[in-house]
Amino acid sequence: MVLAADHLINDTEAFHRAIDDAKLHAEDGRLVAFGVVPTAPETGYGYIHRGEVLQQPGFQVTAFVEKPDLDAAEKYKESGEYYWNSGMFLFRASRYLEELGKFRPDIIAACKEAIEGATPDTDFFRIDQSAFEACPSDSIDYAVMEKTKDAVVVPLNAGWSDIGNWSALWELDQKDDQGNAYRGDIILQDTRNSLVHAESKLVAVIGLDDVAIIETKDAVLVASKEKAQDVKKVVESLKADGRCEIKNHREVYRPWGHYDAIDIGRRYQVKRIMVNPGAKLSVQVHHHRSEHWIVVTGTAKVTKGEDTFLLTENESTYIPVGVVHALENPGKIPLEMIEVQSGSYLGEDDIVRLEDQYGRVGE
Predict the structure, then answer these.
(1) Pairing of strands 186-189, 203-206
(2) Are 113 and 128 in contact (CB under 8 A)?
(3) Can you tell me the distance from the alpha carbon of 257 to that of 251, in angstroms, rounded to the nearest whole number?
(4) What are the tens digits of pLDDT across the range 41-95?
């Protein structure tokens, strides 16, 4: 079963009934798409056109239809023959692979190569990176479902939402007397029917209607709710401009824990580092930066050149440029540290890993 992480299902029992119906088709070798019964002439979704009624609950798929304009969407809804394409599917893995091999042999070949070159790593299974990155990018819809003769659609009427934009999130969220949905440190004055989320700062909104305001550590978005889907255009613009926000977040998760880049300037960067109990960062060296480490809570086991020693709360050490070093949390509680980097270049690619328990040597 193929599901998305960010979909909402309000009626679980109806969802389970649809799965049971789909399973009958999947056991017969068909590939099933769940088609959501439209509640409005939605232009933000693709549609599935149903065809022949099957003996078991469901329909043969006639066509997958791209996102329509409003006139077409209204006709689709009135006809009763079209469903929203939820992007959820059910099929035998073997049947999917058969159809993928038939219609997109280049994709399946790249995936096989990535699996053949995989290596085990603690509780990870690391596929071959170069082989997988060479795999063509395509959706299940385009690669298989639109081409196979065994596509079936099972209607789904279970209070589904893909929460595909901020406007959808506002519709689902609890609201105050003015129609506002908000979370975080918020002050609202003369504001109505708006969605306001604050992650790290106080956000004050005055005299606005029907807007979405989203504050995160990385950036702030302000948009009218009806234009919320156009955030995709902003992302494309960021890509075209080569902006670092596309790849780098302020808060970054690693196998050993995470760090938060709390300040950055010319020739310096400050990070708050959290290391999980028993975890260890790679043995590494930097060619362009030095580092100061200050322990806030917990115990740090530090390797610096030929020396290995412990640091506890309010203790610190200095790692000069070019010195091999490592950091480990030997304790039972998370290790919190402040790291101050200084140097001519502070990019994450100025990390030469010499040893690493997470299989990242050479990355």
Answers:
(1) parallel
(2) yes
(3) 11
(4) 988 889 999 999 998 899 999 999 999 999 999 999 999 999 999 999 999 999 9
Summarised one tens digit per residue, pLDDT across range 187-229 is: 999 999 999 999 989 999 999 999 999 999 899 999 999 888 8
Q: Which long-range contacts (CB under 8 A, 24 or more apart) does 183-188 make?
A: 184/215
* C-alpha angle 346-348-349 in degrees, rounded to nearest 5: 105
CA 238 – CA 246 distance, rounded (Å)? 7
For residues 30 and 136, give the distance between their C-alpha atoms in angstroms, rounded to a whole number: 25
Residue 98 contacts residue 91 (beta carbons within 8 Å): no
Angle between helices 93-103 and 105-116 (to 10 degrees): 120
Q: 310 and 299 in contact (C-beta within 8 Å)?
A: yes
Judge if pTM exceeds 0.85.
Answer: no
Which residue, 149, 150, 196, 147, is CA-closest to 169? 196
Neighbours of 184 (CB within 10 A): 14
Find the radius of gyration of the CA atoms of the chain: 26
Phi-psi region of 210 (alpha: psi -120 to 50; beta: other; left: phi over 0): left
Length of the chain, in residues: 363
The gap from C-alpha 304 to its chain's centroid, in whole angstroms, comes to: 36
Whole-angstrom Cα distance, residue 8 to residue 169?
Answer: 10
Cβ burial, residue 175 (10 Å; 0-12/13-18/19+): middle
